[in-house]
Each structure stands twice: as structure tokens, then as C-alpha cells.
Write a structure and sequence with these properties.
This protein is α+β, with helices and mostly antiparallel strands and 298 residues long. 22% of the residues lie in helices and 20% in strands. Strands 1, 2, 3, 4, 6, 11, 13 and 14 form an 8-stranded antiparallel beta sheet that branches. The chain has a 4-stranded antiparallel beta sheet with strand order 5-12-7-10, with no helix packed on it. The chain has a two-stranded antiparallel sheet with strand order 8-9. The longest helix has 18 residues. It is globular, with a radius of gyration of 18 Å. The structure holds 2-oxoglutaric acid. 2-oxoglutaric acid (AKG) binds next to strand 4 and strand 12.
Length: 298
């Protein structure tokens, strides 16, 4: 028996590769996350370059702080850590990929008003190929997400298609242009919803989000996880410090040392470009934007 999702939500996810659960979280949790974010923004005023907690937008200054991403927020925010371990997050994930869940990573993308960065089209699985694809990302929507503020967008059903080539000139660029691989921009959908909703997308889902040119920020906290029997393939951008450390990432259920294998054609995300480890920096290797291409095709 599923814990929180209906059978039709589960089959929608299996078919389309994503779900949005509207108004899933109490307002108090979203308010607490916003308070935490304001502390990190204050902290960023003293920074002139990104560090292991905060990634800065180009153009950040002490007077006009511009944080692009809060890195690994579950390690520096009790509110995020508690939410990540709560049934608000884990129950829907268990309904989709089973009882044994391991954390991959967390990040809080700020997409600030007036030019918060785009995230180019990509598949998470291209960054971290594993022995099977029971992998998903839960997005906690912190600001109402709508067409104007750079919503998360997906190509429904693309999780069942190929894992696309994310390399440019033989270097991993972490992105590709959808039209170049035969995807039609008209098929992309926006995962809009009010603050307090969550999105869930499959690890092989083609997704991205345009620059935010509106006057409202679009903050979203991603919690990414996988079935405990999905093991990273060598070269994956997965932190590996041995099995003991790996097992500290269990979110619920039991760890295993028996990987489950699924036959999925992949490329290893190597060689890496000579840039800081950041999706935004890696994707500069694409040298153009898939979102410009969408505008041109209209
Ligand atoms: O923030 C977004 O809209 C997408 C983020 C994303 O896909 C990522 O950070 O890997």
C-alpha cells in the first residue's frame, strides 16, 4: 500500500517522470526556510568569491548580495536537515522508489529576481550514472513558481528515452540543446505551483529552467536521492569516500552491498572541464543557451 500517493499519481510518475504535489508542506516550514536563507544572504555580504557553503552569482557585491546557490543546505541548516528526514519528503519517495533510500545531494537554487541564472537542459543521470535509475529529485518550492520567474521545466516521458550526450568538444558540459537531439520545445512543460508545493522528477528526466528576468525570486530546494541498491559507476560525479561514509547517507531503510543492475546506455561525465565543480560553471561549456533556442523557435 502506498503511504501518501494515490495509485494514479504513481502511474502518472511512471508514465511521465514527474509529479507536482501542490501545497504539500505547512507554511511554517517554508517560513523557517526563508528565515534561514536570509541568514545565508547576510553571510554572503562578507564574501568576494564562492566558498563551500555559498555559490555567488557573477556581479555579487556586499551592497547587493547575489547568492546563486546554497550548497549542501542539509549540512548547514537544521530546518533543511529535519525536513529532509521527514515523511513530507521521504513518504512520497518511498512510494515511488521503495523503502531503502540514500541521499545523493541537496542544493538550494536561489534564481534571484532580475537575472537569476538559467540551468541548461540536462539529465541528472548524466552527472551521476548509477547501476540502476531508481533516482529522483524532490524540489521544495519556496516562492510561488510560475511562467515569469524561471520555473523548473521538463520534457514529459523523456526519462524513458536515451541518456543524451552532455559533452561538447569531448569535454563534459552537463547540458545539451533539446532541438539538437530531436526534442520539440513545444513539448516542454512548466512545473508551476504555489510556495509549499513539491515537484518530483525522475533522475533521467530532461529538465532545466530559464533565466529569471522577473522582479520575484524563484527559490527551490532540491533533495536528490536514490534506491540504496543504485551504486555509482566509476567516473560519476558522486562523492565516494568508502562504504562506511556512503552508508551514513541512508535516509531510511537498510543499506546493501548488492547493486541492482539495469541495462541503461550511458556516458561517463568525464573528462571534466577545468572549472569549479558547479553545474552553472560546467554548463558554460555549452557555449549557447537552450532557452535562447526556445525563444527563436516560437
Ligand atoms: O533550479 C532549477 O530550476 C533546476 C536545477 C537543476 O536541475 C540542478 O541544479 O541540477
Amino acid at each position: 500500500m502506498p503511504e501518501v500517493l494515490s495509485n494514479s499519481q504513481i502511474s502518472d510518475y511512471q508514465e511521465s517522470g514527474y509529479l507536482v504535489l501542490e501545497n504539500h508542506l505547512p507554511d511554517s516550514i517554508i517560513e523557517s526556510i526563508r528565515t534561514e536563507i536570509s541568514h545565508f544572504e547576510a553571510e554572503s555580504r562578507s564574501l568576494t568569491e564562492s566558498n563551500d557553503r555559498l555559490e555567488l552569482e557573477d556581479g555579487h557585491t556586499a551592497e547587493q548580495p547575489r547568492v546563486r546557490r546554497i550548497r549542501l543546505p542539509h549540512t548547514i541548516s537544521n530546518v533543511v536537515n529535519e525536513l529532509m528526514h521527514s515523511d513530507h519528503i521521504l513518504a512520497p519517495a518511498r512510494d515511488l522508489i521503495g523503502p531503502n533510500l540514500r541521499l545523493h545531494t541537496t542544493k538550494l537554487n536561489m534564481k534571484s529576481a532580475e537575472n537569476g541564472s538559467a540551468v541548461e537542459w540536462h539529465q541528472d543521470y548524466a552527472f551521476y550514472p548509477h547501476t540502476n535509475d531508481d533516482i529522483l529529485a524532490i524540489g521544495v518550492i519556496i516562492d510561488d513558481m510560475a511562467s515569469e520567474n524561471g520555473p523548473l521545466m521538463v520534457y514529459p516521458g523523456s526519462h524513458k528515452g536515451p541518456v543524451y550526450d552532455h559533452h561538447v568538444d569531448d569535454v563534459f558540459a552537463g547540458a545539451f540543446i533539446p532541438q539538437d537531439v530531436g526534442l520539440n520545445p513545444k513539448d516542454a512543460v512548466e512545473l508551476n505551483g504555489p510556495a509549499g508545493s513539491i515537484s518530483i522528477h525522475h533522475g533521467r528526466m530532461v529538465h532545466g529552467s530559464a533565466e529569471n528576468t522577473s522582479s520575484r525570486s524563484r527559490r527551490i530546494l532540491f533533495i536528490e536521492m536514490m534506491a540504496a541498491d543504485a551504486f555509482p559507476i566509476v567516473g560519476s560525479l558522486t562523492k565516494w569516500n568508502g562504504i562506511e561514509d556512503y552508508n551514513t547517507r541512508m535516509l531510511c531503510g537498510e543499506p546493501t552491498i548488492t547493486p541492482r543492475l539495469k541495462d541503461i546506455p550511458i556516458r561517463i561525465p568525464q573528462p571534466q572541464p577545468n572549472v569549479p565543480i558547479s553545474i552553472y560553471e560546467i554548463q558554460k561549456g555549452l557555449k549557447k543557451s537552450g532557452f535562447d533556442a526556445i525563444a527563436l523557435s516560437d
